Amino acid sequence: MSDTAYTTEALVIHAKEDLRLDRVAVTAPGTGEVTVRVAWGGICGSDMHYLKHGGVGASVLREPMILGHEISGFVERTGPGVSGLVQGGPVAIHPARPCGDCPECRRGLRHLCSDTRFLGSAAMLPHTDGGFRRLMTVAASQIHPLPPGLDVRSACLAEPLSVALHAIARAGEVRGRTILVQGAGPIGALIVAGLKIAGAETIVATDLQDFPLSIARRMGATSVINTAATPYRADHDVVFEASGAASALPTAIACTAKGGILVQVGMFPPGDVGIPLGQIIARELDYRGSFRFDAEFGTALALLATNPWIAEGLVTHRFGLSAFDEAFTTSIDRRHASKVLFDIAG
Q: What keywords sit in the KW lines (predicted)?
């Protein structure tokens, strides 16, 4: 069979506000590769940014690209040199393929690799196609067989949960501490879930909308506050800024106790962001960035298997791939939706 012997349906972003269901070639698996029949995919904030703005930060669309990096499915076919995987076996796909040879990779910081290929990302040219397609071929190193007890639908949440777990790891020990999570979108809600499992004593979630706060409550927040109605200020040992709104940063700083830790999880829009550095200095705050994840992916799968309430509480809507317009419209509406999934196999 030639490399392009057959095609599959895929959700392709051509430009800002130009999303199409196209047919694309399916590459046969080469040495060390696996073809996966994709079953489920989660819509991420970055997917919505590509649709609404034509890019995410410095990653700007320059050619058509398949969206999606929160992906699970079943092994369709394995290439030469691949062992330990069975046809039809349920798997999740780690979206990152770091180079393995740069200074960051050699230091064990694979998630900071500047040459990484990340599914559904326009950071490099040619862009790296994502997983919103019915068949896709990836490196076997990206394939994670599902642990016992984890269904393939819930498994696509391993990627956003990994982001949350990495952010929590950046904060250090959280057991018994008072925590604020600012921004209760899917990542903020998953941070709340991770904090609950890790034994945080108090978990306060804030947002400008009531619906995401109801999801945070399901995820284990001990209290929730709509800051559009009730301005909030209180000292917390650790603050996670998960909104990605530059205007929210001064509040996050003010809510971090003296000598506390502020973890920046939300990605700011392009351009300079004003930061009250005087407050960071005078309060001796430890301001830490958090970007993607690496080995947390396996941990996320294990947690999803043993804590089914995470997926049950986070997922609010499911759509077939052909209903992509409705799916994205729903996902963008934070008043009624949290995590929206594509039933790609349906």
A: Metal-binding, Oxidoreductase, Zinc
The DSSP bridge pattern shows strands 96-97 and 117-118 to be antiparallel
Question: Is residue 264 domain-shared with residue 221, that is, in the same domain?
Answer: yes
CA 255 to chain centre: 25
Q: pLDDT band at residue 64, thresholds of 50, 70 and 90?
A: very high
Whether the pTM exceeds 0.70: the reply is yes
> At a CB cut-off of 8 Å and minimum separation 6, what does 277 contact?
none
All residues at 6 or more sequence positions from 201 whose CB lies less than 8 Å from its CB, including other chains:
175, 176, 177, 178
Q: How far apart are the first and last CA of the chain?
A: 27
> Do 31 and 151 share a domain, yes or no?
yes
* CA–CA gap between residue 237 and residue 206 (Å, rounded): 16
Kindly state the percentage of the chain with pLDDT values over 70: 99
Kindly state the DSSP code that residue 141 receives in the 8-state scheme: G
pLDDT above 90 (res 275): no
d(CA 38, CA 183): 30
